[in-house]
Amino acid sequence: MAAESYQQSSATVQLEAGKNFIHTDVLPKPEDTILDLGCGTGELSAYLAELVGPREGNSNQFEGMGSEKFDIIFSNFVLHWIPEKSEAFRNMLNSLKPGGKVAIQYVDALPPLLVSSLEILNPETHEQLKNKLHLVKRDDVDLICTTAGFTVVRSYYARKTVNVYPSVESLLQWLVSTSQGVFDLQLVTQERIKLLLQKFGNPPFDFTANAFDCKLVAVKPKSSQTL
Ligand SMILES: C[S@@+](CC[C@H](N)C(=O)[O-])C[C@H]1O[C@@H](n2cnc3c(N)ncnc32)[C@H](O)[C@@H]1O
To answer: Would you say which domain of life the source belongs to (predicted)?
Structure first.
């Protein structure tokens, strides 16, 4: 099979993980009004729309914030970019109907093989990326969520299943898009690629080892007072 035909980008990895999460945990009903918080390119929003019909709001601007109009707030790989998580959870609570739920997929640590590849290929930007990401451990996210007024229904780790890069190019492409522009291709010299191959061997690069996603489903109590 030609490399391109099964090449993965950050977008496809996240899209597949997002669809999987929708069918295991989000479980939207046709009549639900859903906000896709931090929708990015909107492909998952479109997928959700196919499942639930016309929807209000697929905005990463929190359109409808505080309106108590959503049945579900879905968010796929966004929470770890948000510095003020308490505020975000309060805003989400205030935007949901009583009895509505949040379904959030995020990471609370970078996979070790990703960290190694960043150190080899882009040591200059590694610190910047760490500062841009706001990784908070799952237990603490649960606490922030509960403190905001939610009742946690499910919170668990799931092993990443889709995280294999068939070529150096596909890995670089993924690092660029997954780092929100911090990873700098100009810094990737042939020397560094050689070091990468020494460490990981020839592609495909399998980054699934010790790589976990966090999944959180929490409901707004029916009698909740919005803050
Ligand atoms: C990794 S992308 C995920 C996109 C999409 N949810 C998906 O699964 O394809 C992260 C997204 O989070 C958004 N984002 C970052 N910080 C945010 C914030 N404070 N509030 C809302 N969205 C944010 C970015 O604009 C970007 O679209």
So the answer is: Eukaryota
